[in-house]
Amino acid sequence: MKDPTRIDEILRAVRNAWAGQPDLTLPTLMAMAANQGIGWGSSDEELIGYLESIAQNYPPEITPDDLADGGGFMLTMMDKGLRISLVDSHVIVRSHPSHQTVVWEFDSFRTTGPGFPLVITDTAGIDHRLGITERITSLEPDSNRADLKGLSRADIGDAVYGIVTEDGRTVTLSRRLEVSSADRRSLEVSHYQWNRVISHAPLIVELAGGELLELGTPTKVLLAET
Known about the structure:
alpha+beta
């Protein structure tokens, strides 16, 4: 007889994979495993390995300790237009394309997961309640870049970088380029089509028409999405 205590381990793996994407039905989750060749004749270990990989990509919950090893996460909120990234003690808040991308440092956050509120405490000790988490996606560390020189629009894929410059501008670099700058009385958000990054410091980007746009010296380059 096989060890019956393994059942609890399998059920934990199912729970963690399912809790990270609760909109899935259990039959759908099992069908996804079947599409990966896990079915009749597969071992329990194969199923557990597959479920653990899903839970790693879409965690059932995250705590501040999960960022200690340099990892990062993007949270899709129940407010469909709001995406929040947590990386390197920074919060990157992206909403409607016409709105400014906001980047700020945080001190901590409360454990959250799909269906639970996201509450982030900034470095001044103020709590920010940012809505209900719908899904958490682990960011792929291989996409992280300290130097953007040579990056092209053709190669950026689905990656999104949040860049803070010395003069206070916030630059969002994805398949398009967004530049946000604010003074005491106004906020300006500009969007551009771009070809490639010519220089990192100062940050110089070649636009689609060949014009060069200088954006200041980056102080932070943060991976917001992969």
